[in-house]
Amino acid sequence: MLLITKIIIAIVALLHFYFLWLEMFAWTTKARKVFLNFPQDLFEPTKSMAANQGLYNGFLAAGLVWSLLIQDMQWQIYTALFFLSCVAIAGIYGAISVSKKIFTIQALPALIAIILLLATLYSS
């Protein structure tokens, strides 16, 4: 079960590296095709704001990758739980304030990983 959990954590990290790239480097190009409900005329004026959001996503991804590299199992789980909780909370807030689709893309994978990590923590 721990291997499956680590794979899900890696997927969540990869998603956030993708969000980093999209928001920091492709906001006025590729993001226009991803965020179809966002007004097209606002991409250029919000470029620096999106880059800031991308940077935060990068920190979340880096924390998740770091959690996979920690040797001590207990600290690995605690670190992963912290960063996954940040992702889940951000995803839930985004689903409430922006689009319900954010819950499925961002919060749900993090919540699944949290449940699996807690099961691992309390079964040992």
Please characterize this protein's 3D structure.
Helix 4 runs antiparallel to helix 5. By secondary structure, the protein is mostly helical. Helix content is about 80%, strand content about 0%. The chain starts with a helix and ends with a helix. It is built from five helices and no strands. The model has no long low-confidence stretch (mean pLDDT about 95). It has one domain (about 1-30, about 45-124).
Write the layout of secondary structure elements.
Elements: H1 2-25, H2 31-34, H3 47-69, H4 73-97, H5 101-123
Helical fraction equals over 70%
| H-E order | HHHHH
Rg on CA atoms, Å? 16 Å
Total DSSP E strands: 0
Spatial separation of the terminal alpha carbons: 12 Å
Identify the notable features of this structure and list them briefly:
124 residues, mainly alpha
Summary?
It comes from Croceitalea rosinachiae. With about 120 residues, this protein is mainly α.
